[in-house]
Amino acid sequence: MTRFTIASFNVKNLIGANKEFYEFLEYTPEEYAWKKDWLAEQIIAMDADIVGLQEIFEESALRDVVDEADKRGHALNDSALPDATKSYRKKAIFRKLAYEGYSDAAIAFAPNINDGEPGQRRPGLAILSRHGFAEPPEVLQELDTPLTIPLQELGGGDAGTYSVTRLSRPILKVRIAVGGEKITVFNCHLKSKLGEFIRPKGADFVREANLLTYDAAGRAMGALRAGLRRMAEAWVLRREILKELDRGRPVMVLGDFNDGEHAVSSEIISGETPFRNYAWMLRHDAKHPNDRYSKTENEGITESVDRVRLHSAEKLFVRKSLRDMVYTSAFGGVFESIDQIYLSRHFHPDYKKRIGEMEYFSVFNDHLTDGSHPEAPYNKLASDHGQIMAHMVIEDRD
């Protein structure tokens, strides 16, 4: 049996000191030192084998954080772990407490092609892997063929199209060998819920940004545009997932979905949940009221849906533990999970041909506040997301 952990961590705007990322926003050397310190402590706390990271502006800043984590983690090992003179040196509890480090780990970084000048920067993402990469990492952001979504009026009639030529942030795909298996891992950061507004030609700012003349309808339209883009990006990711599943490859998808598990965008990524029994359903080509799918057809349809379905690691944990207390985001008094880890059925406990499964699920969210906590001002430097980590086990193949 091979055990490993896989985590997702939106670090919130990781960039070096004195570099303006968004308008009027940059870190002083002291603030960068604080952020690096905090992130290193979170990396040590997770000590995950595979980490998908979002909101990375610079690979060099990420390497700074990893190096700092290793320095502190190994110092912690030296002070906390019993040395060879102690009779309890091989106790399992001490082995589990040891920080493993990332000195031999690989980093794949995907910069954002929408990145701009200082003040107009756009973050990319990365994957950190102690197991390295079995194949060269792949980045998807600029679409070879634009995604054009045809729309129609209710009752028929053409309603135009919605087109996307590039994603707001890249999708990073890697192949990682673990326990005799090669797993395809996708890291993503879908379009946020922040409104997408259109600046009139020659204007200094978008009309909806002027809160002194609050435009509720205009801001709602911006949210609609953002939702359309997020769902389109979810479909692009789903298409890539299906390519891997159709090749029989185990898949894990993680990242900042900017939506909960039951949002349409998340369900596009995970796929449909099969009906309990299609045999009662009226056939697609029905000519008579009793034209239903047969028992054999029901089994085939269910398999077709299940084969390409992904499962939320969080919900598998809740099912296992009989607890529901997971959240990765707190804003305006709403605590929810918008960061996800999804698993193909290769890791589902009910699938007879599974290659492994999840043993536990960890959430690191003690730092999250909705603005009312005394430490809320530090949210500029700490992340506004919790980290999630799935503890996996794979049955080794001979």
SSE arrangement:
Layout: E1 2-14, H1 29-46, E2 50-56, H2 59-80, H3 92-97, E3 106-110, E4 124-129, E5 138-152, E6 158-178, E7 181-189, H4 216-246, E8 251-256, H5 264-270, H6 295-307, E9 310-312, H7 313-321, E10 329-331, E11 334-336, E12 339-344, E13 356-364, E14 387-394
Parallel strand pairs: 1-2, 7-8
Antiparallel strand pairs: 1-14, 2-4, 3-4, 5-6, 6-7, 8-12, 9-12, 10-11, 13-14
Structure, described:
This protein has 398 residues and is an alpha+beta fold. It has two domains: 2-271 and 311-394, Deoxyribonuclease I, Chain A, CATH 3.60.10.10; 272-307, no CATH class. The chain is 27% helix and 29% strand. The protein is built from seven helices and 14 strands. It has helices spanning 29-46, 59-80, 92-97, 216-246, 264-270, 295-307, 313-321, and strands spanning 2-14, 50-56, 106-110, 124-129, 138-152, 158-178, 181-189, 251-256, 310-312, 329-331, 334-336, 339-344, 356-364, 387-394. The strands form three sheets. A six-stranded mixed sheet has the order 3-4-2-1-14-13, with helices on both faces. Helix 4 links the parallel strand 7 and strand 8. Helix 1 (29-46) packs across helix 2 (59-80) and helix 4 runs parallel beside helix 5 (264-270). The protein is flat, with a radius of gyration of 23 Å. The mean pLDDT is 89.
